[in-house]
C-alpha cells in the first residue's frame, strides 16, 4: 500500500504484508494509468492509501498505456497520447510485465505531444519542469507500469501544489 497523501515509495506486495490501515481510513485500488483521468485522480487523491494493481492482465484498449488529452478550448478535438508497448507473454502479460516497445521514441512522443497540446496553458511552464521526472523514467526502467505510476503521482502532486483536490479544480 502506498500512502497517497505522503507520496512515499511504493511497497512491494511480494512476500510482504502490511497491517490493515486504521479503521476509518480509505484505501483506493487502481491500475496504473498513463496521465489518468480526473475521476481516477479524485479517487486516489481522496484516499489515504493507494494500492497499485499491476498484477492483472494488460488491456490494450484501456488507459494503462494511453491518455486522452483534454482540449484547452472548444476549437480542438480531444487527442490521444498512446505509447507503443511490447507484451512479452502475449495477451496474458500483466501490467507489471508490459514494456515500452521503444523507450526513446515513447519519451520523445510524451514530451512532444504534451508540449504541442498544452504549451499555451498558463500551467505549462511549471508542469514541464516537473514532467522531466516522468520522461527520465523511460531511461531508468523498462517497466511501463513504473512510468504510468510516476505520471499519476505527478498529477496527484500537482493537485496538492494547487491546494485543492482534483474535484475542486
Automatic annotation (TrEMBL):
It comes from the Bacteria. InterPro entries: WbqC. It holds the Pfam family WbqC. The lineage of its organism: Bacteria, Bacillati, Actinomycetota, Actinomycetes, Streptosporangiales. This is WbqC family protein.
Amino acid at each position: 500500500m502506498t500512502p497517497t497523501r505522503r507520496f512515499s515509495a511504493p511497497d512491494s506486495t511480494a512476500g510482504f504484508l502490511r497491517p490493515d490501515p486504521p479503521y476509518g481510513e480509505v484505501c483506493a485500488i487502481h491500475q496504473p494509468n498513463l496521465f489518468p483521468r480526473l475521476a481516477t485522480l479524485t479517487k486516489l487523491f481522496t484516499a489515504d492509501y493507494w494500492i497499485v494493481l499491476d498484477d492483472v492482465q494488460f488491456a490494450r484498449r484501456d488507459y494503462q498505456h494511453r491518455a486522452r488529452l483534454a482540449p484547452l478550448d472548444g476549437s480542438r478535438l480531444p487527442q490521444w497520447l498512446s505509447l507503443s508497448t511490447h507484451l512479452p507473454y502475449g495477451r496474458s502479460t500483466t501490467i507489471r510485465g508490459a514494456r515500452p516497445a521503444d523507450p526513446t521514441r515513447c519519451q520523445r512522443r510524451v514530451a512532444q505531444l504534451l508540449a504541442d497540446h498544452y504549451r499555451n496553458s498558463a500551467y505549462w511552464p511549471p508542469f514541464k519542469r516537473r514532467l522531466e521526472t516522468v520522461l527520465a523514467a523511460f531511461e531508468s526502467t523498462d517497466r511501463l507500469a513504473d512510468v504510468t505510476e510516476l505520471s499519476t503521482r505527478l498529477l496527484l502532486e500537482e493537485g496538492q501544489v494547487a491546494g485543492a483536490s482534483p474535484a475542486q479544480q
